[in-house]
Amino acid sequence: PTESGFTTDVLALYDWAKARSGNSSILFWGHSLGTGIATNVARKLQEERGVQVDAVVLESPYTNIRDAAAHIPITKIYRQFPGFGYLILDSLALANMFFRSDENVKVLACPLLILHAEDDDVVPPHLGHKLFETARSAYKDKTKVKFITFPEKLGLGHDYISFNPELPTLVK
Fold first, then answer.
1. Any catalytic annotation for residue 25?
2. What is the CATH number of the domain that holds 60?
3. Does the active-site annotation cover 158?
4. Among the options 54, 158, 159, 162, which is catalytic?
5. Where does the Serine aminopeptidase S33 domain lie (predicted)?
6. Active-site residue among 32, 71, 119, 129?
7. Is the pTM of this model over 0.85?
């Protein structure tokens, strides 16, 4: 899988869904790695086709893949070793894996909702908050950018925000 391949696949899926959806809204919902794909496709549609998606929801997002790899807890023990940046972080760039959500949100105009749990032990919540701040400072209409944090006591972590019974109401 490649970043370009993921983006192309989701564009094809969008076209397929749009052709069959009538006047229904279509939103992109990305989780974790999928948040980079969602912002890539939303930006590509906007810049290359002049199409603005109805909304983008990012669940447990990061700013870009380099930041994510540098901050995810599993890499903590390796960060101290010489060569970590070259072997891990630079190898992502050499493979054309960037997933620059931080750059993508700067040009989006559609409603953007960012969801992050305080107890996310895979993608640190500060990366989601940083992405929110980047989007909020770039958006002309600040009311279109929302950030919802789920308290640690809910135990939603990285994978269980979708289990929160209040989520449908929050998304609306």
1. no
2. 3.40.50.1820
3. yes
4. 158
5. 6-74
6. 32
7. yes
Q: What is the residue range of 144's domain? A: 3-67+99-171
- Taking residues 26-38, what's their average pLDDT? 96
Tally the domains of the chain.
1
Assess whether 120 carries a catalytic annotation. Answer: yes
* Pick from 56-60, 86-90, 167-171: least confident: 86-90
pLDDT tens-place string over residues 108-146: 999 999 999 999 999 999 999 999 999 999 999 999 999
Q: Is residue 144 part of a domain?
A: yes
Whether 89 has a pLDDT exceeding 70, the answer reads no
